[in-house]
Fold:
Amino acid sequence: MSKVKSVRSSGKRLAKPIIISLGGSIIVPKEIDLAFLKGFRAMVEKYISKGRRFIIVSGGGHTCRLFQRAAAEVAKLDKEDLDWLGIHATRLNAHLLRAIFRKHANPVVLKDPTSSGIVFKEKILLAAGWKPGFSTDYDTVILAKRFGASTILNLSNQDYVYTKDPLKHKDATPIKAISWKEYRKIVGDRWDPGMNVPFDPVASKKAEQYGMTVVMLNGTNLKNLDELLSGRKFKGTVIF
Structure:
């Protein structure tokens, strides 16, 4: 029997949560973005009032890469050391989110998405990095599978997935819809600590295996996120 069990409360099955992979560089571009956090909290609370629930998995982003670069300047590190620095950066960001959502959130930041002891009866579950070799994108896919969600919202600081890195290549063009097969040709198959891609290669392989859809959009554009959550037309990339 699978250790993954449906979570129930008061004898009634809980609604499937909205699954969000939240890029750390949105939370902390260079300094903590208070305007974003205030707006994001207001939006999540708006949908909580409508009966929705959320699982939010925090990335490490700028904080992760800042610490990884600093450590690598001082000593020669292996991938596991670099990964652990990134993991702890995701946990710091997740604890920040848990604090601002304290009224609605599970009191514990989830660190292991495969744990058989997850009890999620609240409106929000915050999660962070797990272990070396896996990004928070991967953790998000595992949690989506556990809680019966077929769609993941991946919030980054870019409007779309592009054919190339738009910060480096002026001829990069946006992609509005792309299959997993074609997307994985762009990002490859290997995960490296601190890797900066829209959705990581290992997580992409797992999402394709599970038949999931990932919607990539700019999380700083909260009006656009609201359009998506309301079922209206939005700006972003759909990977299917």
Summary: Residues 79-100 form the longest helix (22 residues).
